[in-house]
Amino acid sequence: MAENETLECITEHERILQEIESTDTACVGPTLRSIYDDQPNAHKRFMEKLDARIRNHDREIEKMCNFHHQGFVDAITELLKVRADAEKLMGQVTDTNRRLQEAGREVTAQTEEVIRCRIQQRNMATTVEKLHLCIPVLEMYSKLKEQLESKRLNSLMWTPLGCFCCVSGRVSQYRFCQIMAENLPRLREEIKEISMSDLKDFLESIRKHSDKVGHTAMRQAQQHRTFNSAVAKQASMGHYTKPVYSLNGRTHSHTHYGRLLTADETGDEEEADEEILTAQDLVDFSPVYRCLHIYTVLGDRETFENYYRKQRKKQARLVLQPQANMHETVEGYRRYFNQIVGFFVVEDHILHATQGLVTRAFTDELWNMALSKIIAVLRTHSSYCDDPDLVLELKNLIVIFADTLQGYGFPVNRLFDLLFEVRDQYNETLLKKWALVFRWIFELDNYSPIPVETEEEYILVVSRFPFHDAEIEKQDFPKKLPMSQSVPQIYTQVKELIYASLKFSESLHRSSTEIDDMLRKSTNLLLTRTLSSCLQNLIKKPHIGLTELVQIIINTTHLEQACKYLEEFITNITNVSPETVHTTRLYGLSTFKDARHAAEGEIYTKLNQKIDEFIQLADYEWGMAESDGRASGYLMDLINFLRSTFQVFTHLPGKVAQTACMSACKHLSTSLMQMLLDTELKQISMGAIQQFNLDVIQCELFASSEPVPGFQGDTLQLAFIDLRQLLDLFMVWDWSTYLADYGQPTSKYLRVNPATALALLEKMKDTSKKNNIFSQFRKNDRDKQKLIETVVKQLRSLVNGMSS
């Protein structure tokens, strides 16, 4: 146990020694304290251990010294050898220094003499310089006083004030200069007031001249566009002259606009002889230059710049305010644009003619503010325009306005984006105008085929409308073309709208594909909205009869066939192939198809209405004992009307005529059935049934006469099959067969509904009670009356079975 404690103590002492050797001296205290805090007498053993460690380090030091001793001895020996040479070198340096001191005494004396001479010379030059500085200051101050008294700012602008301020700083220590300096603040304020007064007069003047400056700039921009067109023509012929033109005194190659038109190029000798006008020709900018120079010299340039920019911002807001009635005439828009262009032309000139009075950032800020206001104003006022010619003039002004300002480096993309909105407004006004034109054409149309007496008349018609029919061309004159007079007129008006839309697309810097797309969209709007609406309203008008509706169907058919020629017409204008992927197609086919379907539906409706009018003339004597032996007069008139009407349908497509005929027959059959089953009709005699049967026979004969060709077999007669089976049932009195075969597919009376038969039978039953219609049955056999009662009960059971 004691041995273990001894080993632990030794190990702990080794650790403490290593910690003492490896740590900082400041940390030794806690380590030594741990020795005394441990076991009793532990410090003695530690001291023994420490002594042993010290002796060990001493032996290592001794070994190291013995190892390096010989090297140290060798170094001392070498140093002793060098000492003699060092003493010899020291003597040589001392001798050399002595001889240099003796040789430089004379040079030092001469140098001191030169220094004294130079000081005298500098003092003399300083005196002369001060005298030269003082004399000009006095002269300049005298001139300054004279110029202020006479308010000659032009002279003040260049030398006296600036030089006086600069030179006086060098002689400020003299009393006369101090007196002058005390007067300078007052002189500066006077100069500022005079120059500022001139600047205010300039700002008022430029406000009045902006209109003229803008008018000149926009006129030159318009002439430049005309010149470009002339250059394009000359280039195609091999003649081209390099343009040289200017608006603000700077020569431009392709961005700024100016005048270079000559009499030979434009044919306008008066404009060719006019002098090129610049902003400096129209406005005197000297007050701005003077005021800027004076404020710069006086060290107050920033104040002047802020004042000028603030005033110009106020003027910009005034310029951007439009007149209330600006939208009424093109002159109102022109004055508005002239003032804005004039304002920015002046700012562009100030930007380039001065150094920092206005910056590009300032003009861009003004332009962005103005552009937002301009777009809002134009968007509002253009919405009031309902005249397409005025909208077109506005578009031309916007293009010239944008081109003019673009020439001065202002971005105008938003203006061209606005033109797309104006284009929509232009299209709307065109559509409204063309809607009136179409209505007028429809009002004046006689809705009859066009008569052609001579070949010249025929050529005139086909020159206005692409009509080709080999059979009609073979006919001799006079002859008739199937469409009415409105067809070539409408086709011509559609082409006129395309031309009107093309006018708006000019000068918009758009590709042929985009122009083609614009024209096609405008044409589609005209066809699908305006013309379609006019056709729909025309079809719904009360005075349009069946003959007119038939002619409308024929007209829409020919207009539909002419749509491909409109496609070719647009393609010839834009030179864009219709096979291009993004080419918009004309929707005229659907427009005319919809109109034709509406006309067809109106034909069916009017035909049914006419049938109803004839039906209202029916005057049956429902209690008659026997029939007259002939059909009713109203029905014969109705059949004659239908025959004459269907003869007019020969020019219609076969399906339309067949559908109209079938619809008329079905409506007639339904109306006759409703007449029999009318709830207000309480009694019907067998004689009335026989008379009604004669009328139905006439209807069946009309259906079998094939009033419209194309029906197969007895298709048309099937429209009256319900009536025929019902009347046969009552005429033959074949109730046993009806009741026995009811519900069978092969039943003879398959189309007779039990409810219909019951309603009609009850009306005849009520008549038998009062008028003794069934007296012969009661006299012969009372059992037959019971049979009728039985039939009624069975029919009611069938009706109840169907309802349940």
Q: How many individual β-strands?
A: 4
Specify the biggest β-sheet: 2 strands, antiparallel
Shape: elongated
Structure class = mainly alpha
Poorly predicted regions are 157-163, 238-274, 771-781
- Continuous helix count: 30
Helix content: over 70%
Strand order of the largest sheet: 1-2
Overall pLDDT: 77
Task: Return Rg in Å.
Answer: 59 Å
Protein name: Exocyst complex component
Domain Exocyst complex component EXOC6/Sec15 N-terminal: 49-218
Function: Component of the exocyst complex involved in the docking of exocytic vesicles with fusion sites on the plasma membrane.
InterPro entries: EXOC6/Sec15, EXOC6/Sec15_C, EXOC6/Sec15_C_dom1, EXOC6_Sec15_N, EXOC6PINT-1/Sec15/Tip20_C_dom2
TL;DR of this structure?
The protein contains 30 helices and 4 strands. It is mostly helical. A hairpin with a 4-residue loop joins strand 1 and strand 2.
Give an account of the 3D structure.
This protein is an all-alpha fold and 804 residues long. The chain is 75% helix and 1% strand. The protein contains 30 helices and four strands. The strands form two sheets. It has a two-stranded antiparallel ribbon with strand order 1-2. Helix 22 runs parallel beside helix 24. The relative contact order is 0.03. The model is unreliable at 157-163, 238-274 and 771-781 (pLDDT under 50).
